[in-house]
Write a structure and sequence with these properties.
The complex is a heterodimer of chains A (244) and B (263). Chain A has 8 helices and 9 strands. Chain A has 244 residues and is of the alpha/beta class. Classes of the chains: A alpha/beta (244), B mainly alpha (263).
Chain lengths: 244, 263
């Protein structure tokens, strides 16, 4: 068995020159080309995560945390560098999975499940469990656009939590829904990420949560690794830094 | 070659998703509406009646079997224009999905195209009923329906893929496609017969340069005029369609993971 679940090598992601254009600007504006802002969201990050480990990522807004997570999930392509997942299945849990708002919650369970690489049979077996966990009552048979923000997140969480993948990427969802659901989801999350074989990356601003959950914490600053190591040490430095 | 193997692999992986998503989409279209699935029948029927009145009665078109003639035109045209219009804003409309999970972007178009195909088949179903009423003879030549439809699909899919890509970056692309579509609509002979109404070089030009006009004409030839389709023409457009599809697949493989950054 592989020792590592994820290796990221010299990852660069920038948002250069991908601005939207109009036909006029493409054909007639060639002379005075505006200078394109190059935003380097992730700038040369390398890291290795062992199988079964839990990595926390911390950093101020705009430091490239979410971008990196999405790149690992395969949504963004890196401009330079590489990401190897060793064939593990992966899911990104962020506020709201990709729902089709016109369709019912139930139908979205199936579609999300298929996209996560499950078969219809596997999803059918877990359907009830997901619906029970999401706990949104009759709304599961209603189109997702009728959901409140809370219900939306509850269903999203339930889908990713019940349809388990080898690698879970968790983006700021430690506080979803009302107090009751928050407790339930936090416990579920603990249960999920403490499973031996599961590799997890959590992005959060809550130093307490990260301290409790993670084996290792990575501090990302302006797209670069500022520090990586034991949660207590990194989080202490981070709090000092942010305090100033 | 690499693009083709990747495309086929992805098709296998995501075909279930495309079908499920298409079914759900069709279902959602009717659950909220008052007349339900009847819209799928009412829509082509009403267009047919409008065109039949305006161009058959007002402009005195003496085409044989004018009603089936117009209905074939509408059906083919609607499929083509839905594919074009649908693809331009496709990535944008699926923003929620593609910023959260990886999906090969042509699967979005594939799924959409299945819903359009469904509507096309309803429309052709209505055509069959009308043809029975009008005593249009049914012949074996009608089996050419399948290769002609396949060609139409490949052409529309290829153009759709390319437009889908540029639609991500160019905001006002839909304005341009609207104008081009309107133009192609009038030049495709949806409600008139190009081969009898237009003469000489322009007729040849219209039927050979515009795949929609050509394919529409082929459908009419086999369904109501009982003639053999032009095989060279079909092969030619199938080849063009395949090349466009290949180019589209290639562009999308190159760029699809940057879409999430733009929208």
């Amino acid at each position: 068995m592989e020792k590592y679940a994820i290796t990221v090598d010299d990852l660069h992601i920038s948002y250069k020159g991908l601005k939207k254009m109009s036909i006029r600007s493409t054909f007639f504006n060639k002379k005075n080309k505006e200078k394109v802002d190059i935003i380097k969201a992730v700038n040369g990050v390398s890291l290795k995560i062992e199988k079964g480990k839990i990595l926390g990522i911390i950093g101020k807004n705009g430091s490239g945390k979410s971008t990196m997570l999405r790149a690992i999930a395969g949504i963004f392509s890196p401009d330079k560098g590489s990401i190897n997942l060793y064939g593990n299945s992966i899911s990104l849990l962020s506020i709201g999975v990709g729902f089709n708002k016109k369709l019912t919650g139930r139908e979205n369970i199936y579609l999300s499940g298929l996209l996560l690489g499950f078969t219809e049979d596997e999803i059918r077996k877990k359907e009830k469990q997901i619906i029970d966990f999401a706990d949104i009552g009759k709304f599961i048979y209603k189109p997702v656009r009728m959901y409140s923000t809370g219900m939306h997140s509850k269903l999203a969480f339930a889908i990713t939590a019940i349809l388990e993948t080898d690698i879970m990427l968790i983006d700021e969802v430690l506080s979803v829904g009302d107090i009751q659901f928050r407790k339930k989801s936090y416990n579920k999350m603990k249960e999920l990420i403490s499973a031996e074989h599961r590799t997890v990356i959590i992005v959060s601003h809550s130093t307490e949560n990260l301290k409790e959950l993670c084996d290792e914490v990575l501090w990302l600053h302006n797209g670069k690794i500022k520090m990586i190591g034991k949660p207590e040490e990194v989080l202490k430095k981070y709090e000092e830094f942010m305090g100033n | 070659m690499k693009d083709i193997t990747k495309f086929i692999k992805n098709l296998k992986l995501y075909f279930k998703y495309a079908i499920r998503s298409a079914k759900a989409e069709l279902k959602s279209e009717i659950t909220d509406s008052y007349l339900n699935w009847l819209w799928w029948i009412i829509e082509p029927l009403s267009f047919m009646l409008i065109y039949a009145f305006v161009f058959g009665y007002v402009f005195k078109n003496t085409e044989q079997y004018f009603i089936p003639f117009v209905l074939i035109g509408i059906t083919v045209w609607e499929f083509f224009s839905r594919m074009i219009n649908g693809s331009v804003k496709l990535v944008l409309n699926n923003k929620d999905l593609i910023t959260k999970v990886y999906i090969p972007k042509y699967v979005l178009l594939l799924s959409k195209s299945l819903t359009y195909l469904f509507k096309l088949f309803i429309s052709f179903g209505i055509l069959v009923i009308i043809m029975i009423f009008l005593n249009v003879p049914f012949t074996l030549k009608m089996l050419y329906f399948i290769p002609i439809l396949f060609t139409l699909y490949v052409i529309s899919f290829g153009i759709g893929l390319i437009l889908m890509h540029y639609g991500v970056y160019i905001q006002d692309l839909s304005n341009l496609t609207n104008i081009v579509l309107r133009c192609v609509f009038y030049l495709s002979g949806v409600f008139y017969n190009i081969s009898t109404r237009i003469e000489g070089i322009i007729q040849v030009f219209l039927l050979q340069v515009n795949p929609v006009a050509f394919l529409m004409n082929e459908f009419r030839k086999i369904l109501i005029y009982n003639t053999t389709p032009s095989f060279e023409g079909l092969l030619f457009w199938l080849a063009i369609g395949s090349v466009l599809t290949y180019i589209g697949i290639h562009i999308i493989h190159e760029n699809e993971n940057s879409y999430a950054k733009v929208i």
